[in-house]
Amino acid sequence: MIELAQADLAQAASAGEAVFFWILAPIAVAGAVGLVLSRQAIHAALSLAITMMCLAVFYIMQSAPFLGFVQIMVYTGAIMMLFLFVLMLFGRDSKDSMFETLRGQRLLAVVLGIGLAALLTAGLGRAVSGLVVAEPSGPAGQGNVERIAEALFSTYLFPFEVVSGVLTVAAVGALMFAHVAKKGGPRGQREHSRERFAPGNYPGPKPGPGVFATSDSTATPALRPDGSIEPASLSEYVPPRQLTAAEAAPKHTEGRDS
Amino acid sequence: MNDPLWLMLVKGVLVFVVLVLLVLFTIWYERRVVAIMQVRPGPNRNGPFGLLQSLADGLKLAFKEDLMPRTADKIVFIAAPVIAVACAFTAFSVIPFGPEVSVFGIETELQLTDFEVSVLVILACSALGVYGIVLAGWASGSAYSLLGALRAAAQVISYEIALGLAVLAVFFQSQLMSTGAIVEAQAEGLPLNLGGAEITLPGWYFIVLAPSFVIFVIAMVGETNRAPFDLPEAESELVAGFATEYSSLKYASFFLAEYVNMVTMSALAVTLFLGGWAAPFPDSWWPGANEGFMPLVWFFGKVLAFLFFYVWLRGTLPRLRYDQFMNLGWKVLVPVSLVWLMVLAAMNIGLDTGNELPTRIAFAGGAAIVVMALIFFWPSRKPYEDPAEPDTGLGGFPVPPLDLAVPPNPRSLKQLEPANTSAVPINGSRSTDEKEEE
Q: Annotated region Disordered: where (chain B) (predicted)?
């Protein structure tokens, strides 16, 4: 009787699993196709994230909840987020260059891609078909997490540590590439002060943009707080010219100052 | 969890309703508490004590015009707030509100769902919630949104690490990853044998794992983008951050997600460190305190206390600068959590009476030495030393001395000359008054 109930339960579970599988599997495949076909890099990244999440749900359905949630946290939450970061900084309008340097590579790529797909499908199909889903091995009463922990920290301890070491080295190496060493320590008050009062440097504060300007014309120089002209504000392309006395004199155009 | 389907549905709807009500309440609560801290009344017009203020605000937001920038990426622009809200609500589904109760003759726990690794659901949801922020910023097609999103995402991702490490200590101590089981594990006291004297510490993890609790609370504030870590939308400095281009219901849903996250994080802190739904006093005081629906009072009381803490922080602390904030996260919280985890593991081996005595002494002593070394060699800022002699400068150019004493302000020294001003009317208003009198 109990066995029968268990069989019923297993059947119900597998029925639920099947329903979820047939809902999620097309979404996962659609995500993968979208990754390849989408024009925008961000859309491609999002499609990949969708596929990853579907895979995570598959793991959870196969009674590996820890693996499923770690997949969401690590792959979707951390790694894809880093991709998104980089893609966002590229700007939205940047497009891939469609110029082909290798002649006929498209045709070759399609042929080889189909070949690879056929090979993978055949190989995986042969390897997977006829497999029976086994109960998790190990002593009874041990949970999913305990089993993973035991495997990671006993059987696979050395490979695990080696992989983490390799990843750390890669991260530090990437940092080293991007890092630009600063020359010397931070400049203190003394150095700043000397630089400011060095010969050839105007020691006062530089005029703020537009603060002293009565006009935004390039012909109008900025004035320093003491009223003299700030040379940095003069355009090097517009030659300075002083009005002659005749030019500067009133023109009697308004009939007031006769 | 073998609930019938209808009970699951009821629970799901109840969790949703409770969260929405809590959000409406929290907004009002926050505004009132901050107002009291700043000696002003706060919202007090709509409904009793202004309780309906947030409802009115929400309705008003919903009726506003829904704008979409021309440069926006339409699908992602709409999907972003949906992702934010969905992740925020999903995370709450594994929070236990209370013990087993009987509902219409069915024994069930006051929790939507629980399984082996349910704490990870909350962490996964907060990891996915970042997508809402990042995509909102990117899809708006505006530089302000993009920069705001980058700030927000960098902040949330950085503090997620410290948060995860703090939660890891709870996993270490309880050897469990399920929220309900962690609450039950905290109900038992921690027996400690100190030189023959048996002491039973309270089992709540905020005592045993005090460093983790502190790190968790700091990281949790950073994770929810709340003051003093509200850099992504620093109200007085930036335009709404990643939500710059959003309006109407879409903007409201980001707001909703933020407050739901606040409630979820408070509830998670209560669950992991403050004994969950357990009553905050020994069982012997009131034997029935932890049975039936009574624990709901303790649970929501603790959550509200945490929300008060959030508001208190907002009312008290000034906002951090971005680099200070990142330094705190990466250079203080993460290393301290890592060292604390190692110390905790060593202490657990050292205090375990099943091990041999030399092993125990070695591990406990090693942990103590690491802690002492950390306190001793903690890098501190070089103290400022006064220069021995004033700087004479280079080549005779004047350089202000480093020990410059500011001379007294001449204006404050000037004596006012006694003037005969009383006969003259000081301002126009007085003269008009006089005219009217005439």
A: 387-438
